[in-house]
Fold this sequence. Notes:
mainly alpha, Four Helix Bundle (Hemerythrin (Met), subunit A), 9 helices, flat
Amino acid sequence: MLSRSGRPLAQMLFGPIAKLFVRLGITADAVTIAGTILTCAVALWLIPTDHLTAAAWTIFAVVIFDNLDGQIARLTGTESSWGAFLDSTMDRFADGAIFLAVAIWAVLHAEPAYANWIALGAVLALLMGGVVPYAKARAESLGFTANVGLAERADRLLVILVAVFFVGMEWGDWWLLGASWLLVVAGFFTVIQRMATVRQQSKGESL
């Protein structure tokens, strides 16, 4: 939901930065790859070492620049299927690093009563985070649309980063427990929504 509703605001806020990058000769692909590398490095360094507050703010700062590559591509007339493919693929690496880091943190630092459940929730949330975009991509490859659901990428990242921040503030490890399992449920629900949407569209196609 945030991916769709937040796009106009992001364009307004980061349009000037995108124009600056264009003047500097920074390409959309370079922004995509650099952002992914930075997200992975920060997540896998700061979260497992229990620097959760710093991790949340830093990852959030990097992620909100995620739409810059698209804006740069539009400004330079270099939008392409390759760029969309690269962006989606790099997103999977970044998401994987964040949720894997949360699972590692849980094993190393979480309260014993929560540790295994947080780790399991993070791994399952990562799994669902892969199935959700796959369902949409597969639907589109077959000529359908599946732009529905509660657990798009922006929603998942906001939930997990807020929880990481709250735990870093020592407000209780249960925040990550609740967030990870909320994302598991939301991801599963989103996949069911997308399956139902495509099923309905396929029925109309056969009429």
